[in-house]
Structures are given as C-alpha cells and as structure tokens.
Design a protein that fits this description.
- This protein is of the alpha+beta class.
- It contains 13 helices and twelve strands.
- The chain has helices spanning about 40-60, 85-110, 115-130, 135-140, 145-165, 175-185, 210-230, 235-245, 265-275, 295-305, 315-335, 345-350, 355-370; strands spanning about 20-25, 30-35, 40, 80, 80-85, 190-195, 200, 205-210, 255, 280-285, 290-295, 340-345.
- The strands form four sheets. It has a four-stranded mixed beta sheet with strand order 1-12-2-3. Strands 9-6-11-10 form a four-stranded antiparallel beta sheet, with helices on both faces.
- Helix 6 runs antiparallel to helix 10.
- The model is unreliable at about 1-25 (pLDDT under 50).
C-alpha cells in the first residue's frame, strides 16, 4: 500500500551548503535555523514523511510490483546507490534547506506573504485535522500549523518568488508576445469522440458491434465532421451526440496541451497533427472510430493573452512555468549552496527517519485492517 505524497517537487540541492554549526542542545523544538527563519521539528518530520514517499516512488519505478510498507523492509533497499535510510535523510534535508532558501529570497526581496490567504488555508486544513482526515500527520507529530506552513505557505512563497522574477514587472519578465509564441509553437487544441466497434457480452467475451450500430456511428460521425467544418461548435456536437445516441454524457475528450504530455494514442496524435486549424475528420484506428477536430491555437493564444480565454487549465502563468521552471530551479539551487544555517542535532536525532517509517508502517497497517 502506498502513502500519499502531498509535497511539491523540489530541486536537488548540492552538498556544499554552508553549515555554521551543529547544535547539541536538548531543545528539540526546532530542526534548522537561519537568521530570519526557524524551521520546526514538525517541519523536519513532515519532510522525512515526504522523502519516504519519494523513496517508495523510486523503488516502484525500478520494480515490477508495488512496495508495501506494511510488509516490505525499506531499510534493505538501495536508491540511487545509497542505502534507503540515507537517501531519505538526505532528501528530507534537501527539502528543508530549499524551504529556508526560498524564505530567505522572499525576505531579501521584501516579498510579503498574504496573511488573509494563509489564514483561510489554515482554517481549511484545521478542519481536516479536526475531522480526523489527516490522521497520519497527527500520528507523526505534525500539527495543522506546521502543515499549513510547509504545504501551504511555502508553496505560496515559492510561487511568489517565481512571479517576482518572471511575472509582470519582474527582472526577467516574460513578455506577452513570448508567451504567445511559445504557446502556439508547442501546444495543440483538439477534440475527439471515440466509439469502439467492439463490445463485451454477459460472459465477458469480446464481440463486434452489430452492423446497424456500426453504420449509425459512421453516418453520424460523418455528419458531425461536416457540421464542425461548417462552423458548429464542439458543444453543439456534444449535444447532438447525446440526443442521437440517447446518453446523458458525451464521451468526448477536449484539451489544449503539449501533445507529448497528452494521453492520446500515437496514431490519433498523427491524425490531429495532420489536420488544419478548425478542421474536422473521421478516422477508424484499430477497432475504434473517431470524430476528430483541431481547434485554432492562434485564436486561443490571443484569448490567453487578452484574458478572455475560458481555458482554466492552461493560463499565461502555466506557460511562464513551462518556459522557466528549469531556469528557476537552477537559480534556487545555486542560492541553496550559499545558504548559511544551523542544524539542531538533538532534534534530528530524536525525530529520525526510522521513527517516521515505524509510525507510517503501523498507521498504514491499522488503516488496512479497519
């Protein structure tokens, strides 16, 4: 059984970060500290849990079966040529140092956190804790305040720093024409309706659909393609499909995305690619008949820039991230290597990776049994 990972992916941090001193004091309330931020013990515990999730993902990538924390011994595993415990420890520390680095960069640039937004997040997360939904965090010793700080506030600060650099008025502001150019060169707008010419009978045997059904699909899909080419919208076609096939929901797929990121069969991708903008066609691929339509990416780019786009999954900010995430992560990584911080050995020694593993293993087993 896998455990859910709530944590935003972070850049890998070099080992050359400057450690001022390792504290041997008995105060275990904090784990890391810079001159402007103290990282709590709960934050450290949270990141050991997040790193454990990352470790399980890595193990699963290299295995034919899913890792079961209630049965499998992670301490016997190796990840990227390291013992799993060492890998989890290093990964958790990397996350903590990035957190402190982002906070320092925000402070250096006088970026203020939105207190109202943070309060709203905290209230929402507290309700999850109060309802018992966040049981694993309470078992580990992670409070709603810590969860809000790490999962909520940190992500806001990370985004705030990115926008400060690449957003409007930023030192590396990405102009509208650059966004439009990247969008039109890399994204594709498509819509399709699939209909399988295979069906499964009551005994689970796969058979061909009857000739009447097949003829109806071919005829109606040809009609839809003609109507789209004459100016009807995909919403119009969805309505027609539901009426023609007497269903409540159209099985259509509509998206604007980078095709390599799309879960679209390769042969269907080729059909979409070969279509002109605002053109429709029909195509049978293997045993599935498709109505396929390609939207106008240039019209979508214009709507994206002028703020009239109805697409909520791809925005100007989405494009900025596609363009600059790698550069931004390298920048943060370089700043991490310069960060001066203290590490509290007493805290790290008390809240160990093994402690986190033991608690997660016990909690997961109890949830499976209930």
């Amino acid at each position: 059984m896998k455990i859910k990972n709530f944590v935003k992916p972070v850049a890998v941090i070099g080992t050359a970060a400057m450690l001022i001193s390792a504290s041997g004091c008995s105060d275990t309330s904090w784990s890391f500290k810079t001159k402007n931020k103290t990282f709590t013990n709960g934050g450290w515990i949270y990141y050991t849990y997040a790193a454990l999730n990352d470790a399980i993902d890595k193990i699963d990538e290299d295995s034919d079966s899913s890792f079961d924390i209630t049965k499998d011994d992670i301490t016997k595993k190796k990840i990227e040529k390291k013992d799993a415990l060492d890998w989890i420890y290093d990964n958790a520390k990397e996350k903590a140092i990035e957190y402190l680095t982002v906070e320092k960069l925000c402070n250096d640039n006088k970026l203020k956190a939105d207190k109202d937004e943070i309060k709203t997040m905290k209230d929402n997360y507290q309700s999850f804790f109060d309802s018992g939904y966040m049981g694993i965090y309470e078992q580990l010793g992670i409070s709603a305040d810590t969860f809000t700080d790490i999962y909520g506030t940190y992500n806001l600060r990370y985004e705030q720093l990115f926008d400060f650099i690449y957003g409007e008025g930023g030192s590396k502001e990405i102009a509208d024409d650059e966004i439009s150019k990247y969008f039109t060169e890399n994204y594709t707008s498509y819509y399709y309706i699939p209909y399988s010419f295979k069906t499964t009978d009551e005994d689970g045997n796969e058979t061909d659909v009857d000739d009447e059904t097949k003829d109806k699909v071919i005829t109606d899909f040809a009609k839809y393609a003609k109507e789209l080419n004459e100016g009807k919208t995909t919403d119009d076609i969805d309505t027609e499909y539901k009426e023609d096939f007497e269903v409540e929901t159209s099985p259509s797929v509509k998206a604007t995305t980078i095709m390599s990121d799309a879960n679209v069969p390769e042969d269907l991708q080729k059909v979409i690619k070969d279509l002109g903008d605002k053109k429709a066609t029909v195509k049978t691929i293997d045993d599935t008949h498709y109505l396929v339509y390609k939207g106008s990416i240039s019209e979508e780019a214009k709507a994206l820039i002028d703020g009239t786009s109805e697409n909520t999954t791809v925005t100007a900010d989405t494009i900025r991230h596609k363009m600059k995430d790698d550069e931004f992560e390298k920048y943060v990584d370089s700043e991490e290597k310069k960060l001066k911080y203290e590490m509290n050995d007493a805290c790290i020694s008390r809240y160990t990776v093994q402690r986190t593993i033991d608690i997660v293993k016990s909690y997961t087993a109890s949830q499976s049994a209930s």
